[in-house]
From TrEMBL:
One of its GO terms (molecular function) is oxidoreductase activity. It is found in: Membrane. PANTHER family: STEROL DESATURASE (PTHR11863). Keywords: Membrane, Transmembrane, Transmembrane helix. Pfam families: FA_hydroxylase. The chain crosses the membrane at residues 7-28, 34-54, 66-85, 105-125. It comes from Erythrobacter dokdonensis DSW-74. Residues 116-249 form the Fatty acid hydroxylase domain. GO terms for cellular component: membrane. GO terms for biological process: lipid biosynthetic process. This is Sterol desaturase-like protein.
Length: 289
């Protein structure tokens, strides 16, 4: 009982540790280009290790094929998707901010934690609506469906998907905000902590207060359920489940069986070509236009 209570504290404890790191990190560390990558990878490695120690479902146990695919997508996400997001979205938005004189001085003057929460919740607000659109507009669903073909959940599964979807889900307007660099990085990596645990095969059920605001494996496994396509249309929050509560798409429950199309696992090639196949509705159901 005591051991499980401590395991349940893993997500909030990891979240607190990451935020504390950025709050007290020396400026030279914050400004170093590789620090945020190192922190992100360290979180993933730690949570992956926790899967081996505190397994949630035997059917989700990582194997060599899954691990190799997951590592490929993490590298692809940090490298290729990160490059295109910075080049096509964040860079131009920063230039637009400067040219139009857009400013949020109230945010710049706010305490560190306020900045972190504003950035995280604002970015997740956009992700919520993008994710919801992907489940309700068929052309977008074709880009997102490969992510729902995963047949087990693991720490790196949040990185898996079609490249078009991975780029779309990275779009945000945080470049228009005036925030300290350490607060921006704290928000990004804090969201990564939550999303990593929300996809991980870890036997942790965080406290009620955590689950009210942030996505847990229970919420997200239900979103990935193999019951039917319709049953996945809930709990869209990648890191912040609060927006599902606000907009009426939150559902309580958990699913140990995940996947789509009779749980057929797609290869990387199939995931990348999926949107360009003849558009056949998944599970015989087409998302509403």
């Amino acid at each position: 009982m005591v051991k499980q209570s401590l395991i349940n504290l893993l997500p909030p404890a990891t979240l607190a540790a990451v935020v504390a790191f950025w709050a007290f990190a020396p400026t030279v560390w914050v400004e170093a280009p590789w620090t945020i990558v190192i922190v992100g990878l360290a979180v993933i490695a730690f949570v992956q290790l926790m899967e081996l120690v505190f397994e949630r479902h035997e059917g989700w146990r990582i194997n060599r094929t899954e691990l190799a695919t997951d590592i490929f997508y993490v590298a692809f996400g940090y490298g290729v998707i990160g490059f295109f997001s910075d080049t096509l979205i964040h860079g131009p938005l920063a230039q637009l901010k400067e040219s139009l004189g857009i400013a949020t001085p109230w945010l710049a003057a706010s305490p560190f934690l306020v900045q972190v929460l504003v950035v995280m919740f604002l970015f997740e607000f956009g992700q919520y609506w993008m994710h919801r659109a992907m489940h309700n507009w068929y052309p977008l669903w074709l880009t997102h469906a490969p992510h729902h073909h995963v047949t087990q959940l693991n720490a790196m599964k949040g990185f898996i998907g079609n490249p078009i979807e991975l780029f779309l889900i990275s779009i945000g307007v945080t470049a228009l905000l005036d925030v300290d660099l350490n607060a921006l990085f704290a928000a990004i990596t804090a969201g990564g902590v939550i999303a990593t645990y929300a996809h991980a095969n870890v036997r942790a059920d965080p406290p009620i207060w955590y689950g009210f605001f942030f996505t847990t494996i229970r919420n997200h496994s239900l979103h990935h359920t193999a019951l039917s396509y319709e049953d996945t249309r809930c709990n869209y929050g990648n890191s912040v489940i609060f927006w599902d509560r606000v907009f009426g798409t939150y559902r309580e429950g958990e699913s140990a069986v995940v996947g789509q199309d009779d749980r057929r696992r797609l290869s990387i090639k199939e995931q990348w070509l999926f949107p360009f196949r003849q558009p056949v509705a998944r599970n015989g159901e087409e998302p509403a236009e």
